[in-house]
Design goal:
alpha+beta; nine-stranded antiparallel sheet; flavoprotein; Pyridoxamine_oxidase_dimer_C; pyridoxamine phosphate oxidase activity; Pyridox_Oxase; FMN
Length: about 190
């Protein structure tokens, strides 16, 4: 069985039962520049080329961490279906034409924020940040918002995916898929 197809099935089932604003929200964990794990929530764009696609500024902390150590983990927790998925994989940059497509799909305010700010860097204060945003928005008027040079995306090509279904009996069902030279190998784990 291809675990990426199972992932898409589970995501679809969660979307059917839940009206979450961000159904594809997930926790991305990287290895920090200081050696400590670092996690944050991001939004999965899609599965493409047998990989999970994420986008954003490539010079942000997460981008620098990934460039330094091209391995990452994703975790999904879905409350309606009571399922968890954990993914570990190797990271590579998506092609620039694909990044352009993803950037064009963003809402206008998100595009503007990406052109003004350096994600995760210090700023004077919140009113100053809001002022910069409003000034840029006014200056742009109805003009198209161009993609910044630092904005792109990554593939996380999974080497390991664990699916867990929570059960009231506490006999949680856990299936681990690991990539081998012969394809995916599935094992059942104890709860």
């Amino acid at each position: 069985m291809n675990p990426l197809l199972l992932f898409e099935k589970w995501l679809s089932e969660e979307k059917e039962q839940n009206n979450l604003k961000l159904p594809a929200a997930c926790c991305l964990s990287t290895i920090g520049l200081d050696g400590y794990p670092n996690s944050r929530f991001v939004s999965l764009k899609e599965i493409k080329n047998q990989s999970f696609v994420l986008t954003g500024p490539l010079d942000s902390r997460k981008g620098r961490e990934i460039k330094n150590h091209s391995k990452a983990a994703l975790s999904f927790w879905w409350t309606c279906t009571e399922r968890q998925i954990r993914i570990q994989g190797d990271v590579s940059e998506i092609p620039k034409p694909d990044a352009e497509i993803y950037f064009k799909q963003r809402n206008r305010d998100s595009k503007i924020v990406s052109t003004i700010f350096e994600q995760g860097r210090e700023i004077q204060d919140i009113p100053y940040m809001q002022k910069l945003f409003e000034e840029k928005k006014a200056a742009l008027g109805n003009k198209d918002v161009g993609q910044p040079k630092n904005w792109g995306g990554i593939y996380i090509k999974p080497i390991r995916i664990e699916f867990m279904e929570f059960k009231t009996s506490r006999l949680h069902e856990r299936r681990l898929f690991e990539q081998t030279s012969n394809g995916w190998k599935m094992t059942i784990l104890q709860p």
